[in-house]
Specification:
5 helices, 16-stranded antiparallel beta barrel, 482 residues
């Protein structure tokens, strides 16, 4: 009994520990609720034990009365004396145990009333990411926002905070200052600010506010979390960078033994470019997306994660403004105004993580294919207006091998057709090495060769990047090999 009471006290005291990260804090709150439920059940057991002890004392008292009554009758002296000595001693010991039990139960009840002051304080973190680069061609020849030659870009300065709002929801905010590579000015903005439920029934989770919608494999991953330096070309062109949206997203985990996750959402934008609307937004101006994913253990060391995603905006109202078809001649080019956005994607990830030494060695192969079938209003050079649908494909595939806790090497292939002209194609080959000095300090050296065909009007380019990213304080998502 003493051992069980001691374990209960240790569990209650440990539930007040302050979580260093958003995920740790959420787990701590969930564990606290579970432990409280366990404690209530144990208290009920203790109450039943206490009642049994009191009944035993009452029976001992009755026995003492019976022994006293029997002592008045002529009997041998020795047995009654022994009984009188033995029974009061047993009764006194049992009463002492009951008193100790009551005191420990009172301590447990009192501990339940205590609240650690820091439980609801937010975990705050700061991320900095600097890109040192060299490009063999200038920006006009490569179509990049960064100049040719040598460049230093403070790509992101990110401040994030996360905390539990109450036992039923958690909230987080990410403020990011992105530096303009041309002017050098940093423009700070709210990248994410959302609330997420934690205790809805039927395996449901709802997220609302500004967040990255769950589409594909890497669209909702921050730039500094990617396993390589730059976001894949197809994600930059088709998704529009990160899948940022202002809206609501619902996730449903199927109540079966096998892991299957279904996600659906709606928002006023999808990607870095906001939807331009007039003075009224109808349901057709919203973006709708969904994703289905699952997980398989092919062997104890090999896992397989497939996923399917879709996104639809019935009426984009010229997303991003008029776009000129990239044929190298502005004056003889058609002008495209996007009117409907449709996109589907499929992704697969194989991962080899040996049961032994899995924190220091792994092999990950990830591939994602996207298909865009957007509809445009096209203004031809002669002034004729028509409607045109452009089917375009794009993909990326990468392989990352973790040699040790600190070192990872990888390679990637990319290929994409232009959204407005599927005859304009770009491909790229990359290789990189990552040195994780620690969890909070990481360096990555990457080489990328980019090929552009004649329809793009751009030139091939060779680039070398050195990415230096670091974290101060808590950081919920951290660096992952996705």
């Amino acid at each position: 009994m003493k051992v069980m009471i001691t374990l209960i006290l240790l569990l209650i005291l440990s539930s007040g520990a302050f979580a260093q990260t958003m995920e740790d804090r959420l787990n701590t709150l969930e564990q606290t609720l579970k432990k409280q439920e366990q404690t209530i059940q144990q208290l009920k057991v203790l109450q039943e034990t206490l009642q049994k002890q009191e009944q035993a004392i009452e029976e001992q008292r009755k026995l003492i009365e019976e022994l006293k009554a029997a002592a008045k009758q002529p009997q041998p002296a020795a047995p009654p004396a022994a009984a009188e000595i033995k029974q009061p001693a047993a009764t006194e010991q049992m009463q002492q145990q009951v008193q100790e039990l009551k005191e420990k139960v009172d301590q447990v009840v009192e501990a339940q009333k205590k609240v650690v002051p820091s439980v609801f304080n937010p975990a705050i973190g700061f991320v900095g990411e600097t890109i040192f680069s060299y490009n063999s061609k200038n920006s006009q020849q490569t179509g990049s926002s960064q100049p040719g030659g040598f460049s230093v870009l403070q790509r992101s300065v990110e401040l994030n905070a996360a905390a539990s709002v109450d036992p039923f929801a958690r909230g987080y905010v990410v403020i990011n200052a992105t530096v303009d590579p041309t002017t050098g000015e940093a423009n700070a903005g709210v990248e994410e600010a959302a609330i997420v439920t934690t205790s809805l029934p039927w395996n449901l989770t709802v997220k609302g506010g500004r967040f990255f919608g769950e589409f594909g494999r890497l669209s909702y991953i921050h730039d500094h979390e990617l396993p390589f330096v730059n976001r894949p070309l197809v994600l930059d062109q088709y998704v529009g960078g990160e899948s940022k949206t202002d809206g609501v997203q619902v996730n449903y985990l199927l109540p079966i033994s096998h892991y299957v996750s279904l996600t659906a959402g709606a928002g006023t934008q999808f990607g870095d470019t906001p939807n331009s609307v007039g003075d009224f937004r109808s349901a057709s101006n919203l973006n709708y997306w969904g994703r289905a994913s699952t997980y398989f253990d092919l062997t104890p060391n090999i896992s397989f994660e497939p996923g399917l995603s879709g996104m639809w905006n019935p009426n984009t109202l010229s997303l991003g403004g008029p776009q000129i078809q990239p044929n190298g001649n502005i004056f003889n080019s058609s002008v495209f105004n996007e009117r409907q956005r449709r996109m589907v994607g499929a992704d697969i990830t194989f991962a080899y993580r040996p049961l032994r030494n899995n924190q220091f060695k792994s092999l990950t192969w990830g591939t994602e294919v996207l298909y865009s079938n957007n509809r445009y209003d096209v203004l031809s050079p002669d002034g004729a207006l028509s409607t045109q649908t452009v089917p375009s494909y794009g993909l990326y595939s990468y392989l990352a091998y973790k040699l040790s806790r600190e070192w990872t090497v990888g390679t990637m292939f990319e290929w994409v057709e232009n959204l407005y002209n599927n005859e304009a194609r770009t491909s790229a080959y990359s290789g990189w090495v990552t040195w994780a000095v620690s969890h909070w300090n990481q360096l990555r050296l990457q080489y990328t060769h980019t090929n552009n065909n004649a329809a793009t009007g751009l030139q091939p380019n060779d680039a070398v990047y050195l990415q230096w990213a670091w974290i101060i304080g808590s950081h919920a998502h951290g660096w992952q090999e996705r």
